[in-house]
Amino acid sequence: MTTALIHTIADTRRAVAEARRGGSTIGFVPTMGALHAGHGALIRQAREESAFVVVSLFVNPIQFDRNDDYEQYPRTLPEDLEFCRALDADAIFAPSATEMYANPQLTFIEVSSLSERLCGEFRPGHFRGVATVLNKLFNIVQPDKAYFGEKDGQQLSIIQKMVADLNIPVTIVPVPTVREPDGLAMSSRNRRLSPEERRVAPVLYQALIEARSAVARGCAEAGAVREAALAVLRAVPQFRVEYLEIVEHATQQPVQHVCAPVRVAAAVWLGQTRLIDNVLAEPALAKQQVQYGSKT
Amino acid sequence: MTTALIHTIADTRRAVAEARRGGSTIGFVPTMGALHAGHGALIRQAREESAFVVVSLFVNPIQFDRNDDYEQYPRTLPEDLEFCRALDADAIFAPSATEMYANPQLTFIEVSSLSERLCGEFRPGHFRGVATVLNKLFNIVQPDKAYFGEKDGQQLSIIQKMVADLNIPVTIVPVPTVREPDGLAMSSRNRRLSPEERRVAPVLYQALIEARSAVARGCAEAGAVREAALAVLRAVPQFRVEYLEIVEHATQQPVQHVCAPVRVAAAVWLGQTRLIDNVLAEPALAKQQVQYGSKT
């Protein structure tokens, strides 16, 4: 199979329409490029489930709250193309900013409530930009399934809510976070870490694991769980904690008492680099209930 | 041909998918029911241009800024079905509010700038509700073409901008306003007028015609054009003028000097009923330029 490199919306529509006429289902992996093993898991799963796989590479200007972050975001097109070819993607859609925003963009998608806390609180306009560009990409590619990493948990819940609320005819497939051997979640931003920062970065995941263990022992107060994780983070003086929250996935609202599965989500700064991560945490009781549920 | 009456999103998707498999193009006329000759023109044009015509009948709660207006909005389902059958529509989608909003709607489409003036200024949240429900309906029906009346000129420009900005794969077809013999624009709200109100209502159109005549004489100051129209409206003491503006269609922004085609748009109250209307106005010079343009 060859992998087509496409730069325009019109050519993407043509390629997808042709595949669909041939009876193919369309799998779509939207990315900002700088591909790593996390994206690899998304593309691999799309490849298994769909006859025609489209990967988009687009650093979306309207989701950056800081211009320097947009400018410094890693761009590695030749390596990304090689990466997609090795994983047998059928088409790569790599538009310019002018192609995606030919006229001043005045239309925006707001997913209220879910967008307000966590990353939304610290990156104003970020999720509005994410929801808007994904809505555009869904309208351009018209996939049957689209693949998103669980690492961006709040983004995932917002996209799921947008798709449900707007009746978008696509199935959102969450894919588990891929980690380095030492636990650090794969991220395009990891390459910006200095060797010393890279050495301590996995402590973010260790803190989330600590919270997960606290929850696993049974129903817990969110405050105590949070404190257990923060204690781990405090061992690394280089960390500047932006947030660490215990939230319900579907609503992204913080819980007081952890008596059902939750997401423990955090954002920390290491020097000039912002890292986010999250884990699923399930109280023992909730697990038991599931087991009991399956017995009856 | 029979006209299918469908109440669920799933059945609508099925009916459209089947038609598309048969090679049909899909024409869509979204309405709030209480159908009249204006809607008739939309359905007739869809019928001429598309093999499969879907009409939706849905009084959309989230676009009403006043609950009494929502509750009093005319609902005439049996007559509407007869109307669609007579015009040979293929499917009528008449969902309940629960079907369209199964979960609390947290996702909204904002078309900024275009939504802020005219009706947007006096009906807060109205166009957000319109854009959001039409986005939903487009995702449900996935039409090739959708038909909108020019009477709702600001709505038309907002939908055109939303479709362009979000890359929605649908062609928006504007259809000229249908009028009563005395000039009153067809509207579902006209049936609320008392006989005396109905008698004076056409003066709204006469005022817009007066503005059009003022513009047709050549480049004009918007203020003078506006005053010419307002003078006509003042002859009817029952009118309470909400707005009367000279705007560029694509941006819905008021112009100072009328030297290119504009829309003269107005909203007036007659008792408890709000009427809107608009006309295209072209300065003589602009017409000449068009003529010259066609010669070269």
Walkthrough of the structure:
Chain A has 296 residues and is an alpha/beta fold. Chain A folds into 2 domains: 4-175, HUPs (Rossmann fold), CATH 3.40.50; 188-291, Pantoate--beta-alanine Ligase, Chain: A,domain 2, CATH 3.30.1300.10. Helices cover 42% and strands 22% of the residues of chain A. The first copy, chain A, is built from 12 helices and 12 strands. In chain A, a hairpin with a 2-residue loop joins β11 (262-270) and β12. Residues 290-296 of chain A have low confidence and may be disordered. The A-B interface holds A 9, 13, 103, 105-114, 131-132, 135-136, 139-140, 142, 161-162, 164-169 and B 9, 13, 103, 105-114, 131-132, 135-136, 139-140, 142, 161-162, 164-169. β5 (107-111) of chain A pairs antiparallel with β5 of chain B.
